[in-house]
Automatic annotation (TrEMBL):
Transmembrane segments: 12-34, 40-60, 72-93, 99-118
Keyword Membrane in annotation: yes
Name recorded for this polypeptide: Transmembrane protein
Alphabetized UniProt keyword annotations: Membrane, Transmembrane, Transmembrane helix
Domain of life of the source: Bacteria
Native organism taxonomy: Bacteria, Pseudomonadati, Pseudomonadota, Alphaproteobacteria, Hyphomicrobiales
Amino acid sequence: MLIAVPLMIIPFIFYNAVMLGSGIAAFSSVIMTVPMLSGAVWTMTLGDLVILSALIALFFEVLKATLTTRGSLMNHMFSMVVFIGFLVEFLLVRDAATQLFFSLMVIAFIDVVAGFTISNRAAGRDVSIGL
């Protein structure tokens, strides 16, 4: 039943925990810097890490969408609920009206659309007509 839990809930909860705890300014704090061979310095902020975690979660959600189990439908429904949570919070909460949160919301939307599309295609291949 663990497969029914959408992984996009992790960046959603993390964003809200940081937003409520430290404020949205914490997302611009530098986590690490790496000097490059070109002489430039590459920096990673907390906001970049949140986007990276959302993209990793999206990858695993796409992998889960290829499964045709009972939990798959529940996963898609819960993914839709997570997307609606993103949308409602984006529209109603002042600190969620950021580019970072919007990007997370778009990733959640891609998760919903890709999940339904991939599952529909995979289920179509599972159907066999006996003659």
